[in-house]
Amino acid sequence: xxxxxxxxxxxxxxxxxxxxxxxxxxxxxxxxxxxxxxxxxxxxxxxxxxxxxxxxxxxxxxxxxxxxxxxxxxxxxxxxxxxxxxxxxxxxxxxxxxxxxxxxxxxxxxxxxxxxxxxxxxxxxxxxxxxxxxxxxxxxxxxxxxxxxxxxxxxxxxxxxxxxxxxxxxxxxxxxxxxxxxxxxxxxxxxxxxxxxxxxxxxxxxxxxxxxxxxxxxxxxxxxxxxxxxxxxxxxxxxxxxxxxxxxxxxxxxxxxxxxxxxxxxxxxxxxxxxxxxxxxxxxxxxxxxxxxxxxxxxxxxxxxxxxxxxxxxxxxxxxxxxxxxxxxxxxxxxxxxxxxxxxxxxxxxxxxxxxxxxxxxxxxxxxxxxxxxxxxxxxxxxxxx
Length: 386
Hints:
Elements: H1 3-23, E1 36-37, E2 43-48, E3 55-59, E4 66-67, E5 69-70, E6 75-80, E7 86-94, E8 97-99, E9 116-120, E10 137-144, E11 150-157, E12 171-175, H2 184-187, H3 191-200, E13 208-212, H4 216-224, H5 238-262, E14 272-277, H6 279-290, E15 297-301, H7 307-313, H8 315-319, H9 321-327, E16 330-336, H10 342-354, E17 360-364, H11 370-380
Parallel strand pairs: 12-13, 12-14, 14-15, 15-16, 16-17
Antiparallel strand pairs: 1-2, 2-6, 3-4, 3-7, 5-6, 7-8, 7-9, 10-11, 11-13
């Protein structure tokens, strides 16, 4: 076969390959940039949907859906704000169907719908902002878990961890809420950046943060081929308590031993903290109160236990307050004034006060949001391991 024929055959297959590749690509349309944060803190959102009849913006900084308008190219857009600097979830409602923003790679890790995220920066960098400071690392880990399953963790190690192989660190076990994944404290809560900034300012001690997945029942069902169970309907009902106890078993029997083998963790209660948001806060309180020999630092974000559960399951905590106060170097409870768990959380604080159990608290504005969670993480981590 002569060289000219070989070149022609090669050219043919190259062009054919490009043709097939083009067939596999999504249809190209006008360039859509979304979201765009403007200098005055207003934000412009765009969505390409030439055939849509109605598109609305749904964002956590708005009280309700915001109508968008379509241009001649089929791009729907709206500018809102100015918006208070923070990180917010948002989505589009397209002819009644909720969708992510396809122009945005930042999204909210979740078991259900995954909203997109918009980061509105402050004029002065916020505590969760990327700053020019030494940064820690984020690692994804897998460990042998209960019922023969494999669990997953996101682990933060502080700046200098790899450069100081002889140094050991305290550990903060940090648990997300209902429908959150092990990534949520990292990707939405920006816990790694908060710690980087606080450590750089000398406000927080260098620590390892371990972020587990809190829905043990869902993971077992997924890995065993069963249907995912619905979430418990009663926060302190028998099903919720059983699932919390399963989480406790996994954390104490599997996650902590794995962490202390894989990382340079200081293996005693004075150097272990546990905290969580919403369901993760309930798991935090139950795990800590069942295992006072394991944790000396406890942080409940937007969460509580009822007086009935405390009296029935944790009488040792409230019947011997002097011992409890000696054991716990920090018991923290925080909630937003518009949070749907506000009433129960405040009642929990009042219950602890009546029982003479010491605690620190913070009540903020706002609701059951990750904007508040970042505030609570930034407020509590400087108190840990002091």
